[in-house]
Design a protein that fits this description.
The chain has helices at about 1-15, 15-20, 25-35, 40-45, 110-120; strands spanning about 50-60, 60-70, 75-80, 85-90, 95-100, 105-110, 135-145, 150-155, 165-170, 175-185, 185-200, 205-215, 220-230. The protein is an alpha+beta fold. The protein has a domain at about 1-45 and about 135-235. A 13-stranded antiparallel beta sheet has the order 6-5-4-3-2-1-13-12-11-10-9-8-7, with helices on one face. The radius of gyration is 19 Å and the shape is globular. The protein starts with a helix and ends in an 18-residue tail after the last strand.
Length: about 250
């Protein structure tokens, strides 16, 4: 189902001499192909909320998670670990978190580096969509082999200065990998994400498997995210993203 739908999109987009010359596809042609392959720009723009549930695995540790998005630029992620719930959220302007594993049971504003990450998460359209409006600079790096698959490398310099590369499957135009640098605990680290197991939900294509890897202090870290369920158009109140008042004693 997924492959036949994407194949149809790819055939449609490659029809005509302007698209048939794969050697010289422009940024806008690749972004249009990506948009069409994942369900169409108009269909995605019509989605106001998304809720995902699944499991995160890091080594022997497993944690169920819930992830909620709401336009514009609102996101909330919860992890359940060892009987405690970790929360990270962004209300469109401010980011906050609850980190009981660190002894922080009251909501606190995020640091600048944490805020960057949660802003990226809140942009569930991704950096390629409306990239000029967002202030990003995008260029085509060319065709490359990525894990045995021919893919277009698209390089992104974000408005905040961060750099990231995307690899779009050359046949289906969906992302199969991203890589870039980000700040973790005061140091810049290389981070990459392998993306796969695409499935159709309400006419839109979502990846159901993501493997994040990075190295900190010489130690490789791999985090696997398996999404089990995705709902679109669900009722999610704005208060889900706003930082609640800290609990008071007495």
């Amino acid at each position: 189902m997924m492959r036949s739908r994407i194949a149809f999109c790819a055939v449609t987009l490659l029809a005509g001499s302007a698209w048939a010359s794969a050697a010289d596809m422009s940024v806008d042609e690749l972004v249009a192909s990506y948009q069409e392959a994942r369900g169409g720009a108009d269909a995605w723009a019509a989605v106001k909320t998304v809720r995902m549930t699944g499991n995160m695995t890091m080594g022997p540790m497993q944690a169920p998670f819930r992830l909620e998005f709401k336009r514009e630029m609102r996101a909330r992620m919860e992890f359940d670990m060892q009987g405690m719930t970790i929360i990270q959220a962004f209300d469109g302007e401010n980011g906050w978190s609850v980190m009981p594993m660190l002894g922080k049971t009251d909501p606190e504003p995020m640091s600048e580096s944490e805020l960057k990450d949660v802003k990226d998460m809140a942009d569930f359209d991704g950096a390629l969509v409306d990239y000029e409006k967002k202030g990003h600079k995008v260029s085509v790096g060319g065709l490359e082999e990525v894990e045995g698959t021919s893919a277009w490398r698209v390089d992104v310099v974000k408005a905040d200065g961060d750099q990231q590369s995307w690899w779009l499957d050359a046949e289906y135009f969906l992302p199969i990998k991203t890589a870039g640098k980000t700040e973790r605990m005061g140091q810049m680290v290389d981070v990459s994400t392998t993306i796969g197991d695409y499935k159709e939900v309400d006419g839109l294509m979502f990846p159901f498997s993501l493997a994040n890897s990075m190295e900190m202090g010489g130690q490789p870290m791999v985090q696997t995210i398996t999404i089990e369920n995705i709902e679109t158009g669900v009722e999610i109140g704005d208060d889900r993203f706003a930082m609640p008042a800290a609990a008071t004693e007495g």
